[in-house]
Amino acid sequence: MTTPTSATSALPSRTFTNVSDEGAVPGEDTSVVTKLFQERLQAWKHAVGYIEDYVTVTEKTHHAHGKEYEKVLKTVSHSLKEGHHFDQSLGGVAGMFENIRSNTQGISNAHYDTAKQLKGSILPIFERLHTEIKNKTKELTKGAGKGSKAVDKARNVTQRHIELLGQHTATFDSTGGKMTAIDDPYVLQRGVRYRLNKQIQEENNNRQDLISVQNSFAQFEAHVIQTIQHGMGQFMQVVNTQAEQTKAMYGDMVGVTQRIPLDFEWNGFIQRNNTILIDPSAPARSITDIHFSNQDHRATKPLISGSLERKGKIMRSYDTNYYVVTPSKFLHEYKTDDDFAKDPVPEMSLYLPDCIVGGCNGAKFNVKGKDVSKGKLGNSFSMSHELQFKAHTPAAASQWWEIIRQAAGQVTGEAPESSAPTSPATGKENSPAAASPVSTKDERQPAPLQTQGITKETAASPTSATPATTSATTSRPTPISAAPASGVEGEPGKY
Q1: The whole model's pTM is what?
Q2: What is the CATH number of domain 297-418+446-474?
Q3: Three-class secondary structure assignment of 107-153
Q4: How far apart are CA 307 and CA 389, in angstroms?
Q5: How far apart are CA 116 and CA 101, in angstroms?
Q6: Cβ atoms < 10 Å from Cβ of 348
Q7: Which residues contact 388 (CB under 8 A, 6 or more apart)?
């Protein structure tokens, strides 16, 4: 900082004129300089007061920021929900939040510390300067201000004696010089000089005091500015330290977050849940490798299974399907043996103990019964049907017939026709040809299975399936048109 220049060389000089009567008592106000300095001190005092207010409000603001950051800290003060999904070691998300908590607490503490330093260290600097300005004002009032009053008093005394001298000099001319000794103009003139000299001494003394005040004001203002500079420097250091700490803490938060490896949490998650997660290297599940309860129970093993041909009811042509005889004595019909394409629900199910089985003729055999695949309700309204089956070979047919015969409720000796299927026009039993006498060719063929009039009681008879009793049933059946009415709904006699 440069040294202030001298007040005596910087300010214009003032001289008092005392060579004439008009100049003996100047008309200027001697306290104008003092008032000017008092006003300047007041300006400095207000300027320093502004700085005090600024520091005070800044201190309160930092204290309030400390409280606000405590509210910010509360947003992350609780442990993470589902925190077991995050690695609790440093370097992960849990460590990142711990770092955020500690740095946020540090920011709050930094604001509190800044507020304390501003109030305890910075604000007193300006408060002391404010007090010095006040003391300087008192000093000016008691020093130069008192001298100005003395000058005014001396000037008033001189002015009265000058006026008295003028009064008696006028009387001297009018009275011809006759007057008292006290009123002698000579005496009064010397008295004026005496008081004028005293006035000038007071004026000179006051002048020296004002010069001293001017010189001291230059130094005092330099001191004021230096103090303000020092205080603001300390203020900047305090708030800058807080700002740098806040910047560093925020930088640390971001740095910790950016240093988390992209696969850190995932690898930890895999390690913590390796017994639950799927092993990519493990082979895929296969139904052939799976075992479940009662998978190999004897009731699940078919007695026989395979493809058979069954004659249709309308077109009278054979369709190939997949059939199974189960230990539960059911004959189930499926479209295929595929268990995976769709739900393997039987297309038809015959409960063999309620069925009647005819004889086996080559690759053909007949079974009569109700379709029970729809449950009890469907069973109540279903009709009995004569189903004609054909195996691929006579041996296979014999095997199928034997297993079905053992499970069936009744077995007759009636064998199915062995000839090829007739046309729809000639194959109907209710046609005129069916009522005509049987040709020689028909006599060579076995008669169709006759199940009309056979009751369940006869099916339960132990002798119904023996060869000895089949002779009565193997005779030529009565034509269907002459047969008694059947108790089964449908078209009896159509096999």
Answers
A1: 0.53
A2: 2.30.29.30
A3: HHHHHHHHHHHHHHHHHHHHHHHHHHHHHHHHHHHHCHHHHHHHHHH
A4: 10
A5: 23
A6: 20
A7: 310, 311, 364, 366, 416, 495
Q: Rounded CA gap, 171 and 98, in Å?
A: 107
Helix, strand, coil share (%) of the chain residues, nearest 5: 55, 10, 35
As given in the structure block, the two tokens for residue 262 are 């992209």
> Where is 73: in which H helix or E strand?
helix 32-74
Sign of CA dihedral 423, 428, 429, 432: negative
- Among the listed ranges 283-297, 380-394, 428-442, which one has the minimum average pLDDT value? 428-442
Give the strands of the sheet with 304-311, arranged side by side.
348-351, 330-334, 318-325, 304-311, 384-390, 364-370, 356-361, 410-411
Greatest alpha-carbon span in the chain: 209
Q: Where in the chain is the domain with CATH 2.30.29.30?
A: 297-418+446-474
Q: Is the pLDDT of residue 115 over 70?
A: yes
Amino acid residing at 368: K
Which parts of 323-366 fold into alpha helices (H)? none
Per-residue confidence band for 233, with pLDDT thresholds at 50, 70 and 90: very high
User: What element of type H or E holds 171?
Assistant: helix 144-175
Closest CA to 454 of 436, 437, 477, 431: 477
- Short-list 206, 291, 251, CA closest to 26: 206
Q: Answer whether residue 448 shows pLDDT above 60.
A: no
Q: If you ran DSSP here, which 8-state letter would residue 446 be given?
A: P
Tell me the three state secondary structure of residue 304.
strand
CATH 2.40.37.10 fits 7-267, yes or no: no
Enter the tokens of residue 44.
Answer: 């400095």
Helix or strand run (H / E) with residue 168: helix 144-175
Using one digit for the tens of pLDDT, what is the confidence trace for 265-277?
888 888 888 888 8
Location of each CATH 1.20.1270.60 domain in the chain: 7-267
The SS3 of residue 377 is helix
